[in-house]
Amino acid sequence: MAFPQVFEDLFSQLDGDNGSALYHITIGEKDAWGQGYGTEATAAAVNWALSHDGVDGVRATIPDWNKPSVRMAEKIGFVMTGTAEDPEVGEVLVYEIGRP
Ligand SMILES: CC(C)(COP(=O)(O)OP(=O)(O)OC[C@H]1O[C@@H](n2cnc3c(N)ncnc32)[C@H](O)[C@@H]1OP(=O)(O)O)[C@@H](O)C(=O)NCCC(=O)NCCS
Predict the structure, then answer these.
(1) Residues with CB under 6 A from ligand 1
(2) Neighbours of 51 (CB within 10 A)
(3) What CATH number did the domain enclosing 74 receive?
(4) Which segments within the chain are labelled E, that is strand?
(5) Is residue 1 a part of any domain in this protein?
């Protein structure tokens, strides 16, 4: 399998109060899911974000039915810190990771 062509991986909403950046990832080619790309990209992106001044943590909000995302986050070391209400998907689990 070639590297997936459709791949979005980005940060938004750097919270100035607690230095937490919100992370999003979508691999648009479903055939490419489950091969480790998401975990590899997310681990690299988190390390990159945390290497910058002003970024003290990374947050991800995940619906609890999204088991691949939950598994991916936990494998990398994200910890569930609570829940929140997302206007588009309803209740989401809040996962966070800081500097080791
Ligand atoms: C979420 C996403 C980025 C994960 O990327 P990926 O490359 O498929 O993930 P990986 O292969 O690195 O790892 C997925 C893990 O979830 C596990 N998994 C997959 N389906 C699962 C299920 N139904 N239940 C539990 N675990 C599951 C895999 O076994 C793997 O864990 P393992 O390595 O311990 O076996 C990708 O599936 C995607 O783009 N999904 C659509 C968009 C999306 O949901 N984005 C996140 C929004 S919160």
Answers:
(1) 25-27, 33-39, 62, 66-69, 71-72, 75
(2) 9
(3) 3.40.630.30
(4) 7-15, 20-27, 57-62, 79-86, 90-98
(5) no
**Number of separate domains in the chain:** 1
pTM reported for the whole predicted model: 0.92
- Does 24 fall in a domain? yes
Gap from CA of 37 to ligand 1 centroid (Å): 9
Which residue range(s) make up the domain with 87? Answer: 7-98
Atom 20 of ligand 1 has which residue's CA nearest to it? Answer: 68
For CA atoms 72, 73, 79, 81, the dihedral sign is: negative
| 81 pLDDT tier (thresholds 50, 70, 90) | very high
pLDDT in tens, 8-52: 778 887 777 788 999 999 998 899 999 999 999 999 999 999 999
Residue 57 and residue 55: Cα distance in Å, rounded?
A: 6
90 found inside a domain: yes
Q: Note the maximum CA span of the chain.
A: 42
